[in-house]
Design brief:
The structure holds 2 protein chains of 2 kinds. Chain A contains 7 helices and no strands. By secondary structure, chain A is mainly alpha-helical. In chain A, α1 runs parallel beside α6 and α2 packs across α3. The longest helix of chain A has 28 residues. Chain A starts with a helix and ends with a helix. The chains are: A mainly alpha, B mainly alpha. At the A-B interface, α1 and α2 of A face α1 of B.
Chain lengths: 193, 108
């Protein structure tokens, strides 16, 4: 019984941490900073929380495998569609875990990769988060609980807000494309508007 | 003597990194506490936890709603939620309240 509760608790906490990582990543890309919050702090937290995500997902997988109710092999944690128990929903979790592992591994080996290669993998974070959320909504037997619904809704609101803020920032910073070359003064005045 | 700008920027950066470490530790601690809290909340909030064994009819209804997890465990059996429920406990029917002792008149 303890393993069953632990697997659910660690899964939800992992989702919340993944949400924080995604939001910090979006904020970091925008290079937003203030007097009390620098980009170094954003980047550092983004990296550390991503590592925490891995820890909690490993705990989530371990408790799931050890729980004797359903036989879920360790291979099912990394190989999608390897489990016969709730194949689709479990596979979504496997895919999300694989994506997170790829993100963390490529980030740790960033110095050995080209920026394009690293970035190509890192964009998959935008896929990992909704897949993880979907896995929780589909697999969790406790998704009907108001607390869990509230946590899921808060995660969705947080990421959507960050994405919208980032899109708005993009539009404000990038001047409209023009065929004629414009002077730097007019560009500056457009951006500052 | 003017301060060394390289040293001051390194010190500034070190302070930020210290702040990152402190915040990360707090977040890690909060995550662990949240896991424990959520686990406890699930233990209390999920239906049937800690309640005595229910009748088979109620059990079949709850099984369909809980995605294959067995119904509530009998009291004192922490790990038996996975196993088939024991046969319902048959209690002897209570004596009716208005029953009168049968008194037979003695024969002659």
């Amino acid at each position: 019984m303890v393993l069953w509760y632990a697997t659910r608790a660690t899964g939800i906490v992992a989702l919340v941490l993944l949400t924080m990582t995604v939001v910090l990543g979006i904020v970091g890309v925008s290079r937003a900073e203030s007097r009390y919050w620098s980009r170094l702090i954003t980047a550092g937290l983004h990296r550390n929380i991503a590592l925490l995500v891995v820890v909690f997902v490993v705990a989530h997988v371990t408790t799931t495998v050890l729980d004797s109710f359903v036989t879920i092999s360790l291979a099912a944690a990394v190989v999608p569609f390897a489990s016969s128990y709730r194949t689709l929903w479990l596979s979504l979790g496997t895919i999300a875990f694989d994506l997170v592992l790829a993100l963390v591994a490529t980030s740790l080996l960033r110095s050995r990769l080209s920026y394009r290669g690293w970035r190509a993998v890192h964009v998959l974070a935008y896929l990992a988060w909704p897949v993880a959320l979907w896995h929780g909504l589909g697999t969790g037997t406790d998704t009907r609980l108001p607390l869990v619904l509230a946590i899921d809704a808060a995660c969705v609101v947080a990421v959507m807000s960050a994405v919208l803020w980032r899109l708005r920032l993009n539009r404000a910073l990038i001047p409209p494309l023009s065929l004629t070359h414009q002077s730097s003064d007019s560009d500056a005045s457009r951006i500052s508007r | 003597m003017t301060p060394n700008p390289a040293r001051s920027s390194a010190a500034h950066r070190d302070r930020k990194l210290q702040r990152v470490r402190r915040l990360s530790s707090w977040i890690a601690g909060a995550a662990v506490a949240a896991s424990l809290g959520l686990g406890t909340a699930f233990a209390h909030a999920l239906p049937g936890h800690g309640q005595p064994a229910m009748s088979p009819t109620t059990t079949s209804g709850s099984r369909s709603g809980t995605h294959g997890h067995a119904g509530p465990p009998p009291a004192g059996h922490g790990g038996s939620h996975h196993r088939q429920l024991a046969a319902p406990h048959h209690r002897p029917a209570p004596a009716p309240a208005h029953s009168q002792p049968v008194v037979s008149s003695g024969g002659s």
